[in-house]
Amino acid sequence: MRLTLRQLQIFSAIAESGSTTAAAASIPLSQSATSAALAELESLLGAPLFDRAGKRLLLNETGRALHSRARAVLSAAMEIERDFGVDGAAGRHGALPAHIRLGASTTIGNYVMPARIAQFQRERPRVTVEMRIGNTQDIVAAVLRTDVDVGLIEGPCHSDELDVQAWGTDELAIVSAAGHPLAGRGEAASVNELRAQRWLLREAGSGTRELLDQLLLPHLGGFESTTQLGDTEAIKQATAAGLGITCLSLHAVRDQLALGRLAVLRTVLPPLRRPFYRIRQRYKRGAAALDDLLAGHAGAATEAEAPAAP
């Protein structure tokens, strides 16, 4: 085998820093040796990996294709070093600095993980966390490509290539603007009243949209009027402005409920809940730092913070 881990390490450092000088300082290695290693790698692969823009090195299409694979290989090598105690470069805690690549669908990424990551970083400052946010289909695709180490999603995953585990339960609520006619009244909204409202919904492919179709349509039989918005924050603001009603995670609307801009509607529908899932490649082992970050489940970390529906 002519390709070496050292070459991939140098290439990855250049890709992430944008120059051989900065990469050399982070490895550490001399700038000339770093440039020579890059030239050797490009010669071995028979293709340039970067576009040169002055002193900056920008990944080209070939470089981007290699970068995700290089990071996966380097991550696996670091796991081997950690598991077998090859920690000559370890810090005082006996572990190499870790880099966690996390993918999360919208609700989890925006409203569940930030506080958890902040607490984790206070306890583990040597570990860096990178989080990509997208809809459920985006995160499933990122895990399949190994762009991220693990994905946290709020919609079902239909891929046979991934290991899927439950990761907590999310409570949803039907909400409206605080001044909506259905808000704050003693009588629960009927199915006919709910069906007649304008519903603000996420885009097709969103875990929230797929779930709402599963949870609401059997009771409502359909929506008479809908407006599709591709972002949870847009839906929250439009709902608070009186455009319509919606159904969102209590994690997502906690702030607007506290401000009195939104209200949870009383309805005749049963409680609305959905599972969160953790997904990863079947062959990939979880790094210790990643397991610590995701220890327990979403409900365990945030359940106490969520307001109860009336």
Task: Describe the protein.
This protein is of the alpha/beta class. The protein folds into three domains: 5-83, Winged helix-like DNA-binding domain superfamily/Winged helix DNA-binding domain (Arc Repressor Mutant, subunit A), CATH 1.10.10.10; 99-168 and 275-304, 3-Layer(aba) Sandwich (D-Maltodextrin-Binding Protein, domain 2); 169-274, 3-Layer(aba) Sandwich (D-Maltodextrin-Binding Protein, domain 2), CATH 3.40.190.290. The protein is built from twelve helices and eleven strands. It has helices at 5-17, 20-26, 31-45, 61-83, 106-123, 136-144, 191-195, 207-220, 232-240, 250-258, 288-293, 298-302, and strands spanning 50-53, 56-59, 99-105, 128-134, 150-153, 162-177, 198-201, 225-228, 246-249, 262-264, 272-281. A hairpin with a 2-residue loop joins β1 and β2.
